[in-house]
Amino acid sequence: MAGLLRVGLVGPGLMGHGAAKHILLKGFALAVLGHRNRAPVDDLVARGAVEVKDLAALATESDVVVLFLPGAREVEALVTALQPLVRPGMVVVDASTGLPETTRRLGAMLAGRGAAMVDAPVGRTPKEAEEGRLSSMLGGDPAMVARIRPIVECYVDTIVECGALGAALTVKLVNNFVSFSNAVIIGETFAAASRMGVDLAALAAVIEAGGSNNNRPNH
After folding, report:
1. Which of 53, 68, 76, 181 would you call most buried, defined as having the most Cβ atoms within 10 angstroms of its Cβ?
2. What is the CATH number of the domain that holds 116?
């Protein structure tokens, strides 16, 4: 589709495949750099994506590069290798869950070549990724965030702009801390209740009906 940014995506796995599928469905040209698992790459190629074999080809085919990688180590290695290949105006969008300080350092490195970085970690699960209903937090220069937002909107239904580069990852990590803390509290609560002989189904029903359920207001 004329006028749209060309998108490159690295990491079409559990989360990246769904995101890539919806980027294609919204009419963006998509180049994909995969890894060992052929099934998602082959599916995306069948839907109209172009598979590239290396970072040089990815850089040539892309205005925006979206990363769905396991973590900060992989992001750092890839962006460091990509840095000599970027062009002024290119944007790297990191949808992984990494480290804010690493992201800021990589962003400064890209800025030296006239490119930019936006941290855009996602929430929810591969199921929502396939449905195009992930959530995303965005951090970066406002102009760059506005530039890449239409691409992120392809695969999410909720976006929160968090501030400068690294802010989105910071918010994501704090949110993860809250989620993990809740899981620990619930697990310990049910373990203690079980030792006291509590009917666990009854306890679950009480929690579901009352203020302890985070999805309901406290009446």
Report:
1. 68
2. 3.40.50.720
Using only C-alpha atoms, the chain has a radius of gyration, in whole angstroms, of 20
Stretch 158-168: mean pLDDT, rounded? 98
CA–CA dist 171, 138 (Å, integer): 10
**Whole-number Å distance between alpha carbons of 203 and 193:** 8
Read off φ and ψ for residue 138, nearest 5 degrees.
-125, 135
Cα distances from 163 to residues 94, 141, 142, 147, 177, in angstroms, run 15, 8, 8, 15, 20
Model pLDDT for residues 185-216, shown as the tens digit of each residue: 999 999 999 999 999 999 999 988 987 776 54
Sequence-distant contacts of 125-130: CB under 8 A, at least 24 apart: 126/14, 126/15, 126/18, 128/18, 129/14, 129/15, 129/16, 129/17, 129/18, 129/19, 129/155, 130/17, 130/18, 130/21
Separation of alpha carbons 45 and 35, rounded Å:
14
What does the pLDDT average to over 45-64?
98
The two structure tokens encoding residue 60 = 């040539």
Report pLDDT for 156: 98
Q: Which domain holds residue 123?
A: 7-164
Q: Which helix (H) or strand (E) holds 105?
A: helix 100-111
Please report whether residue 136 resides in a domain.
yes
Asked if residue 133 belongs to a domain, the reply is yes
- Are 202 and 193 contacting, i.e. CB atoms less than 8 angstroms apart? no
Q: Quick check: 176 pLDDT over 90?
A: no
